[in-house]
Amino acid sequence: MKWIIIALVAGVALIAFGVMATGSRNHGGASHNPEAVRLCDEGTADLHAFRLRAAVQKLGQALQADPALAEASISRTLAFAQLGERQNLKHELARADSLTAAVKDDHRRLLAQLRLGSVNGSRYYVMRDSVYQSLKVTDPENIYMLVAAAERAELAQDRDEVEKAWLRILAKDPNYANSYNQLGYMELNRGNYEQAIEYMQKYAFLAPDLANPHDSLGEVYMALGRYEEAEAEFVKSVTMQSDFYHSLINLGKVYLARGELRRGLDILEKLRGQVAGSELEVRVDREIISSYLRAGLQEELAQSTARFVAHYPDQDAAAIYRAVRLAYLGRTPAAQAVIDSALAAMRADDTYKRYEKARQGVESTGKQFEGIAADLAGDSPRAAAAWGSALRILAPGAPRHELFYLQYRLAAALHAQGKPREALAELDPMLAINPRQPDALLLKARCHRELGEQEAAIAALQALEQALAKADPDLPILAQTALLRKELGVSTPGS
Amino acid sequence: MGFLTVAALVFSGWDATRTRPSDGTVWLLGRPQLEVLDVIDRPNGPPTPLQQGDIIVGLGKSIVDSPQSAARELRRHEPGENVNYLIRRDGGQITVTVPLTSTRVDMQDYAVNVVLAAIYLVIGFAVYLRSHDDRPAALFYGLCLLFALYFMTNLQAASYFLGALITQNLGAFARFMLPAVFLNFFLVFPTKKLTLTRHPFLVPLLYILPWVLYIRFSVDQFLGSHGARIHAASWIVLGIFYVCGLAALVHGYFSYRDPLMRRRVRILTVGTLGAVIPFLIFKIGMEELSFRTGLTRLGALPLAAIPISFGYCVARYQVLQIDVLLKRNLSYALLSALVWGGFLGGAWWLGGKVLTVLPGAGPLAAAGTALAVAAGLWPVRRQLQRGLDARFFSSRDNLAVLIEEFSKEIPRLIQREAMLRWVGARLQAVLDLPSLAVYLAPPGGGGATYTLAALTRQRLTLATGPDDDSEPTAPRARYPEKLSLAGVAPQLVQRGEPLWTDAPGAEQAIGRQAITREQVELQQRLNEQHALAEAGIQLLIPMVLQGRLVGVLALPSRPGDGEYQLHELRLLSIVAGQAALQIENTRLYAEEATKQKLEEEMAMARQIQARLLPRRLPQAAGMEIDAINISSKQVSGDYYDVIEREDGRLAIVIADVSGKGVPASILASNLQAALRAQCDMCDSPGLLLERINRQIHASTDPQHFATLFLAMYDPATRQLVYSSGGHNPPLIVRADGRRELLEQGGLPLGAFDFGTYDEGHATLEDGDLLFMYTDGVTETKGPDGDEDFGETRLGDLLYSERAHLLADIFATITGDLRRFRGRDDADDDITMLGLKITTVEAMS
């Protein structure tokens, strides 16, 4: 009898323990179906990892099992928002808003409101700041609070706080994919390319079916001149999401960077047709213009800028292109007047006053135009000064790979001044990061030749030829390369 | 320890047979990142593309930063799946696809190991249950547990999972500890080696190295720089332990002069050698040191020979004192299995039923329910098993009852012979013995010849053979009146175990003429065993008490194949011990009774003597008379008296009767009666003593006699007439210091029926002292027992003290006597009687 009583008591205790340990998870005071909670957790984890389709599916199952589970609806709303499925987003948002209002637990409701507050269209969008401030006191380390903090720091352009927030998010959830994306770009902008690649790789690993990580990774590879790897990532990205135009633009840029001008422009032109009328069309046009400018194709440049000015007369860039076009046509005073007028308008804009980056951009543009004008006038000292100024203005906030063009133009001006050594001092650092820049390599070879450094010149020439191995045969730089080869007395390959 | 090991075994088995995905890598718990420390062979799958030094960053669909997160992610996949791994290698990150295999061990190999582990467990537990307080048995038990643990874990490969890590560590513990326990066991089995007795610190020393190696392995496993493996040096050390263990075993085997012991250990030796040598060659030598795989079975299978050889010896010779397991029949095993199956099945079924009423219960709740139901059914299972045990092992159940019966009855039987007769008859009845004899040691304990003290009636016992032919097959035992056990007695005392007499002849055992003392002793023992066997005595059960062989129970051979079972031997040993104790008790009882009787007699004698002595002595002017009697523990029969005669003279008597106690007192009483009756009728002391001598001689045995001094003193004339019957001559110490001995007289009274007694005369003057005493005064011994107090010391003392009162003189003498013997109590009665002549003035 004694044993039976002991056994029964032990059994009841064990059962109670088991039920407590494995039973329904309590989401803030309300009991929910454990299966629904499990699916919600898994779906939310997929959402964090940018496995958006899987997230939508699991969260839908969670809501089927427990239609009142607000967290599942909120996560599903966010997944639809990320996917850009507006119709689904609208329906799910309505449900999430309702379920959130019905959440009795204050803390849980605030968190739900915080998450929904990030979605434009939610009834909580307008109260997101007050919700954030409330939770900042009670639960500042919650992952959603950290995400909100990162977004706020981003808006305030407080890079340090942004980075801290994303790192804290990762410490809480190593599978929060967007952290890797954000941190990767931060490292890229700092010039920590390898670190950036690691972050982007993790991002791509977490979301293998998402185009964005591959596009991000491709961008880093492209900055480093690893064009083949970049091409592969962009192709992956486009394959996964055929309307991921960023990757198409980047793919075109890869071809252009390798000298495959026709192939690159073909992609960009086709893309331009696809995105006609959208905001992307402007970007595509700008990329096309930029490509012509870098390739030295004056005629195509003139046509494309004329077209840009005609199509987008109100764009700031239109005035700049107009001024550049006038400068190339030899109408320097008119060009100067146009650029001055455009710069004055930009300086009057509120953005210029508020943001340092905007100010840097405007002032650098002015210097760049000055550099182009001086180059066209053959005034290389002035050009060098202008390009140097433009470079110095942008350098503090801009990624190094984004300054390569300015740096090259500065080196070219220095070379024109008869300062090959100084020109090399500008060229070598940029080639150390991306050793496959044809203009820079050609200039480097010339500098070495002029300095009598034959071997270095030949080495630069060979690097140039390797960089242009896939280039279009009629690319102007190829003719210059051949000429330089002759000057260096190097036999033509295969002869 | 057993339960813990079983729990570890169950866990290891469960863990090893689980189908879990493996990527073929080994990691360490203590590492901050998931570094691939080792890549293990995957015989049942393609090689892993992961390399040593890779750092796993992502796995499947997750970024992983700890073994736990990796294991969690890996559990989402199945063996056979290809899973993407994001790894850091050569400074960069790459993604590789890893085909997953299963961590489950090869079931065919594992089944062999499980069977081996089960054999070890069964034998180990059997040993433990029967002899858990025996050192070799405890070590053998530990050895079996470690072997079982080794078998259950040695095929388990490392993986991400904590369970595998624990199993690996348990396996390593078994590997490191096994050799030490193995060596320790053979150092104490079957008998403790002399080296270990001389150097007891060797035992803890044995375990230090394995512990150090194990701790090092564990540290490697948690904090090391590569996958934890038992290094070659460690294997070599462990191998040396094994070799030493084998050497101890072989040495033990060859050092046995006793052929019976050799026979017992031979199978064990062969079995152990046959098991461990292949293990050393194939497992340690070739597989672990030469990295040749596929030799597991060759190394492991022979290890079964150890428990099998032990099992055989247990069954055949009851080595380690455990019961014959083989005699448990199949029915019992099947019915026990049925009980257990019913219990587990019932628990499972009822647990399932309970779970159906608990919606959403998780695995922990299920486990808890199953445990609770199992606990509830446990008493039922226990009762069923008890019933089964009682049915199949009634003799064992009866054993407890019988022991209780003997424990109650034996102490009640205070007559030794009756007790032995009852014990013999009862043992014969309960064990169904043809006969039984009890031999006891000689009363003083000396000598090695034991006398037949009890013998049961020879009973005809029928043996039931295979052909069911009922016929007496055992020869009748012939129990000699005397048994010489000089040779076997030391062994019986030393081991306290039953001795089988079925030894070969001495010549056959020794093979040559005994030369050394050891050989002579062995020859003597074997001869005695041979003689016992010839007499039909198969078994001797020693009756040992306080290191002495009090006696033996001698048992004959049983008819047919009826060997003595362990529980019977236990009963016999227990009863023999109780009987030995009771024999001692009966002896002590007899002694106590005698002592009590003596004390009663002494009390009576003391009473008689007290009545004999005058309570008050006559006093007269001009003289002082005083006496003192100090009785010893053994009343010796001293007597004194002063009788007032009708003519005014005083008859002064002092006597010492031979012997002690009541007889002496009676004789003294007779003396007093005779003296008192005849004192007035005879004026001559010599004549009076002559008469009394004849009377005493006629009424007592010749060996009883008395010494007596009789004096007639006339206070008016101060004339003293005396005669002595062999008594210590009294002393007259004159006032001026001269001493005179009163020696006239004859033989002691009662010794002979003839003889005359001369008379002496003396005249006492003022200040003279007449001092009479018994031999208790002068024969008082010094502390060393060599020297008597003597007449000279007494005379000197009287001389120096003569001027004092008699009471003071007696006190001085008594004090001197006490100081002389060095203790308070005297060995003999002390009696002093004095007469001192005083003037009237002095008296006043």
Describe the protein's architecture and organization.
The complex is a heterodimer of chains A (495) and B (844). In chain A, α24 (420-433) runs antiparallel to α25 (438-450). Chain A is built from 27 helices and 2 strands. Chain A starts with a helix and ends in a 7-residue tail after the last helix. Chain A has 4 domains: 27-139, Serine Threonine Protein Phosphatase 5, Tetratricopeptide repeat, CATH 1.25.40; 192-312, Alpha Horseshoe (Serine Threonine Protein Phosphatase 5, Tetratricopeptide repeat); 316-410, no CATH class; 435-495, no CATH class. Chain A has helices at residues 2-22, 34-48, 52-65, 70-83, 86-102, 106-117, 128-138, 143-155, 159-172, 177-190, 193-206, 211-223, 227-240, 245-257, 261-274, 279-295, 298-311, 316-328, 332-348, 350-354, 356-377, 380-394, 404-416, 420-433, 438-450, 454-467, 476-488; strands at residues 26-27, 30-31. Chain B is of the alpha+beta class and 844 residues long. Chain B has 5 domains: 19-102, Roll (Pdz3 Domain); 133-142 and 159-324, no CATH class; 331-392, no CATH class; 402-461 and 473-589, GAF domain (Beta-Lactamase, 2-Layer Sandwich), CATH 3.30.450; 613-843, PPM-type phosphatase domain (Phosphatase 2c, domain 1), CATH 3.60.40. Helix content of chain B is 51%, strand content 16%. Chain B is built from 25 helices and 27 strands. In chain B, the strands form 7 sheets. A 6-stranded antiparallel beta sheet of chain B has the order 13-10-9-16-15-14. In chain B, strands 18, 19, 20, 21, 24 and 25 form a 6-stranded mixed beta sheet that branches. The model of chain B is unreliable at 321-328 and 461-473 (pLDDT under 50). At the A-B interface, α1 and α11 of A face β5, β6, β7 and α13 of B.
